[in-house]
Specification:
It is built from three helices and three strands; from the N terminus they run ααβββα. By secondary structure, it is mainly alpha-helical. The protein has one domain.
């Protein structure tokens, strides 16, 4: 495992935490669509463009969920191999990093953060990321203005 360095970066791409959130949202959509299709089927609604569209949407959402299940597992494994986790209750022997900026938020072996503490870290990281994005946009705009004035 790597030495403790609070400013290390994350593996490229979405973190395991982000992928897991997407998976939960896609699973919720898939369940709602499946339930709606079942209700239409049981209630005797004749086959129409609506029911056909619902069945197609159900298959598409199930494909997304199936893909995300594999991607989450793959990203968790990659993070573990690298020596950290972005999940709230990931491997306790690994360093925990915030899933947006990659800053260390828990040393290896320490107790898990409470849900409230983790959500506060996420809020702060999102605000910091937004602030950095605005600063980068301002710098880019200034560079464009300078090159335009030449």
């Amino acid at each position: 495992m790597a030495a403790y360095d609070p400013d290390r970066h994350l593996i490229a791409g979405p973190t395991a935490f982000t992928l897991r959130l997407w998976r939960i949202r896609c699973t919720t959509v898939a369940v709602v669509i499946c339930f709606g299709t079942f209700v239409l089927s049981v209630s005797g609604v004749p086959q129409s463009w609506l029911t056909n569209s619902m069945v197609i949407a159900m298959f598409i959402s199930v494909m997304f969920v199936s893909t995300l299940i594999g991607r989450v597992a793959s990203k968790e494994w990659a993070e573990t191999r690298t020596g950290y986790t972005t999940l709230l209750h990931g491997d306790r022997t690994l360093e925990q990093r915030d899933p947006y900026l990659g800053k260390a938020i828990r040393r290896p072996g320490e107790n898990y953060l409470s849900r409230e503490e983790f959500l506060e870290v996420l809020r702060a990281a999102k605000n910091d990321a937004d602030k950095r994005a605005h600063e980068r946009a301002d710098i880019r705009k200034r560079k464009e203005d300078v090159s335009w004035n030449r």
